Amino acid sequence: MKKILPILLLTFLFVNVASCEKDDICVEGDTPLLVIGFFDINNPEQSKDVPFLRIREVILDNSINTITDRSSNLDSIGIPLRIDAASTQFAFITNSADDGTTGEETGNIDTLTISYNMREAFVSRACGFVANYDDLTVTLPASTSNWIQDITIVQQNIENSNNIHVKIFH
């Protein structure tokens, strides 16, 4: 009996240790950002920086946090789309600055409406679901004061943030 007890105890310990699972850590799953590249309207293959760019989400009335506010040397950006709506409106502001007396925005503002169908995709047990976006469309109201002169959708489905989805020409 004295020999059986240690053997049973070791067997029990071995079975418990061997049955442990690794911790689930999510390294691959994240909802992709909409990647926008800025290009020269006169030379469409040439990227072009937007001076003092500010982007504000219109409904939530806040600046996006994926770029530095009023950046002056960006030729591409990644911005988050809403998962609780079928569209997101952004105010793209070039030459953004505040009026010294009123604090009002003095830059040139173009408001884009980005529409899409949100689709949930299961990544893994650790990551759960991420949002992907299909059937992307971008609308800019016509105006003679628009700094954005043309928009091209490169990829209508957004499943990662590796490539440019939309080209903006200015």
Summarize the SSE layout with pairings:
Layout lengths: L3 H15 L15 E6 L14 E4 L4 E2 L12 E4 L7 E8 L13 E17 L3 E12 L10 E4 L12 E4 L1
Parallel strand pairs: 1-9
Antiparallel strand pairs: 1-4, 2-3, 2-5, 5-6, 6-7, 8-9
Summarize the amount of helix as a percent range: under 10%
Number of domains: 1
Low-confidence stretches: none
**How many DSSP helices?**
1
* Cα distance spanning the termini: 86 Å
Q: Please state the overall shape, judged from the principal axes of the Cα atoms.
A: elongated
Write out the strand line-up for the largest beta sheet, numbering strands in chain order: 3-2-5-6-7
Which percent band covers the strand fraction?
35-45%
Mean pLDDT: 88
Radius of gyration: 25 Å
The structure class reads: mainly beta
User: Helix-strand pattern, N to C?
Assistant: HEEEEEEEEE
Main beta sheet, described?
5 strands, antiparallel
Q: Please count the beta strands (DSSP E, at least 2 residues each).
A: 9
Task: Provide the descriptors you would attach to this structure in a database record.
5-stranded antiparallel β-sheet, 36% strand, elongated
Tell me what the structure shows.
The chain is mainly beta and 170 residues long. It has one domain. The chain has a five-stranded antiparallel β-sheet, with no helix packed on it. Strands 4-1-9-8 form a four-stranded mixed β-sheet, with no helix packed on it. The longest helix has 15 residues. It is elongated, with a radius of gyration of 25 Å. The mean pLDDT is 88.
